[in-house]
Each structure stands twice: as structure tokens, then as C-alpha cells.
Design goal:
By secondary structure, this protein is an alpha/beta fold. It is 45% helix and 11% strand.
């Protein structure tokens, strides 16, 4: 390819651990899953997780579309819920084309990819969450994310299909990873113990129960909205396991004081 910077491609094999997991929430057509797996293979991503695919799994239609990515389909894991699929993830990126009205960090694909690679260098585990073809992610799924990604495409036609979205994010992650490998020689960074999504969700459940007993929710109808906003507030920055332990202790101490 004319004009290609060869120095960035000479060492183009990235460690699998540097690349994020890909979580497809309620994907509808097997063909789209297969095309997404092929896009993952193009970019060196390996970890595919499916949340309740509409047409069941395995799906022959996915295999026909995956081309060289059939091994990714074979190794794919299937989950009933998005929180289960992202249970071990410590930095969750969610792609969305809609404004959510939640206080979350919003990035471009390039910014998010740099955040993913930096997070992996610090010992964390990142995942990218993609919604179903027709409706995308619901608000509860978006609230799980630390970062929302929106793509600055042509405003007159900004729709991407599932495989395009996976390819775009995978490509940006690959470029960010190659840049780090080139600049730093893939020197391992000191590990930082990040809290998993499962740990965070357990804390949020305990917090919700505690503040509910204290009468925090003036209106039952607003309870889900308020909890989504609380999660978004905490998820602005990845929490460590020590952060979670401290927050647990705070909530328990308040409960013991008789104020809840």
C-alpha cells in the first residue's frame, strides 16, 4: 500500500491480552454475528461473547459469513444477560448512536481505543459492548459502561451495521496497540487490581437496598432512573477492588449508625 508507514507494521503481532473482548447483546441474525467475527479476526481480536442470540447458538449462517474467523465462533461464549457476559470486565466501552441523558464519559472510537490499551497495560480487562441490530442498547445496558462511544460520521447518514461497528472499534484498538508496542517495546506495566463489573454490580445492589430502606427513592417509578445515574457517576472512572471494599465499608457503617 503506497505511503504506508512500514515501521508501524514491522512488529504487527499484538498479544491477545492487549485486545478487548467483544460483547454482542441480543444479536439477531447469524450472518451478522459471522461478519462481526470476521471483522474481529481482521483486527486481531479473539474473545467473542454473545448475549442471548435471537436465533440460538451455534448458528450455521454465522459460520458461512465468518470466513477465516470460524475459530472465533467456535470459542464464543453465550450468556443470558449482559452483566453476566461482562462479569470479569473492569473497563466497559459501549457503542451508541443516541444521547442517553446520563452523566457518563463520552469518547470517539480513537479516544476509547487509547483508553482500552492503557487500561490493559495497567493490568485491567476491557470489553466493547455492541447492541442489537435494530434497537441497539437499552438504557440499563448503557448504564453498565464506563465510557460511551459515539462515532462522528456524516450526520445525514450515520448508521453503521454491526460488523462495521466492530471493525471500526477493532481497527482503532489495533492501531492504538501497535503504537504502544512500537513506542514502548511492549514493556509490561505494573498491574493494578481493577474491580470487575460483577463486583461493581454487587456493590450497586447493596447500595440500592440500603438507600431504599432509608427512603432515598421518593418515587418508585424513578428508582431505575436514579440507579442508572448513580452507576454512571461511579463508572466515570474504573474502580479498583480496594475502592469497592471501601465503599462497602462506608455503606455498612452508615447502616450500623441507624441512619438507614
Amino acid at each position: 500500500m503506497a505511503g504506508t508507514n512500514r515501521s508501524a507494521l514491522d512488529n504487527d503481532v499484538l498479544p491477545a491480552a492487549m485486545m478487548p473482548a467483544v460483547i454482542l447483546s441480543h444479536p439477531q441474525m447469524g450472518e451478522n454475528i459471522g461478519a462481526a467475527a470476521r471483522a474481529m479476526k481482521n483486527c486481531g481480536l479473539h474473545d467473542l461473547r454473545l448475549v442471548k442470540p435471537r436465533d440460538g447458538w451455534p448458528n450455521p449462517a454465522a459460520e458461512a459469513m465468518a470466513s477465516g474467523g470460524a475459530d472465533i465462533l467456535t470459542a464464543a461464549k453465550v450468556f443470558e444477560t449482559t452483566p453476566e457476559a461482562a462479569g470479569d470486565i473492569t473497563l466497559l466501552i459501549a457503542t451508541t448512536a443516541r444521547k442517553r441523558g446520563m452523566a457518563q464519559t463520552v469518547m470517539t472510537p480513537r479516544q476509547a481505543a487509547n483508553a482500552i490499551i492503557s487500561h490493559h497495560q495497567a493490568g485491567g480487562r476491557a470489553g466493547m459492548l455492541f447492541g442489537a441490530e435494530r434497537a441497539g442498547l437499552d438504557n440499563d445496558e448503557a448504564a453498565l459502561a464506563n465510557i460511551l462511544v459515539t462515532v462522528p460520521l456524516n450526520p445525514a447518514f450515520s448508521s453503521l451495521n454491526l460488523a462495521q461497528a466492530v471493525l471500526l472499534m477493532g481497527w482503532e484498538c489495533r492501531m492504538a496497540g501497535l503504537a504502544v508496542s512500537q513506542e514502548q517495546g511492549e514493556t509490561a506495566s505494573e498491574e493494578d487490581d481493577k474491580a470487575s463489573l460483577e463486583d461493581r454490580e454487587y456493590f450497586y445492589a447493596m447500595l440500592e437496598d440500603s438507600i431504599a430502606k432509608g427512603g432515598f427513592f421518593a418515587s418508585p417509578d424513578m428508582r431505575p432512573v436514579i440507579m442508572r445515574n448513580i452507576k454512571a457517576m461511579f463508572n466515570k472512572a474504573p474502580l479498583s477492588t480496594q475502592d469497592i471494599r471501601t465503599l462497602h465499608g462506608i455503606v455498612k457503617a452508615i447502616a450500623r449508625s441507624g441512619k438507614t
